């Protein structure tokens, strides 16, 4: 994976997809702050890891609670963060941190929750630093629930990969592609099962229709339905799992670099999600003969086929 500049203003959550051993490198920083979380939003089950490169600050692991930071462990350990590589282990009810190439952790903390339930990670290497994770190995889906009125839950995505997911809802599965983990233009909004589960659409900046297609009963609140999103080469495509042909697409020659995906359901719908990310999954119940055609319509009503 490539290096990233980070900011302390926002948590930029990366899904771990069941990985319990994470290796990463940092460069040109004085401290690294890592957040581990159950969900891609602030909550009561978050842990903070500080790796210090400054003799005036200790390295530590501690839980984040309503009163701020509480509990945890501190050690007078400092590292040369001009370049350094580390690992994090999330097994056996513990968070462990060690140096790459060394088996023994230099810090560890027993978790209040099951450490394997910490599904998301966020890095902050300061204004001058960069971080890079090594490729993740496994592909266990992340379960997420979106309730009525819940805001978008943002995660970091890679435009070179298809994003696979399943959702169970009676209507209005909404996905937002953005350049930041905020609802700020430019952004592209995908709604599956809009208008009481009768159509699916792509909009730009939450208003202008770019493409739509008639998709009656595409969602079901009694079973998961699977989809994928592809947004490389200036084209957004949405398709069913097990089908290579998208049922909804739009090409934009001025598409920015989209780095985040937000998910939620509409104001009157609850959703159960399984986020598979870049790890492909198959479903036996998908029926190609009943799927929508590989064609969308623009806002002018003209067919647009892939």
TrEMBL record:
Top-level taxon in the UniProt lineage: Eukaryota
Annotated ranges, domain Farnesoic acid O-methyl transferase: 11-131, 151-277
Pfam families assigned to the protein according to its UniProt record, in alphabetical order: Methyltransf_FA
InterPro entries in the cross-refs: Methyltransf_FA
PANTHER family named among the record's database cross-references: AGAP008648-PA
Name recorded for this polypeptide: Farnesoic acid O-methyl transferase domain-containing protein
Organism in which the protein naturally occurs: Glossina palpalis gambiensis
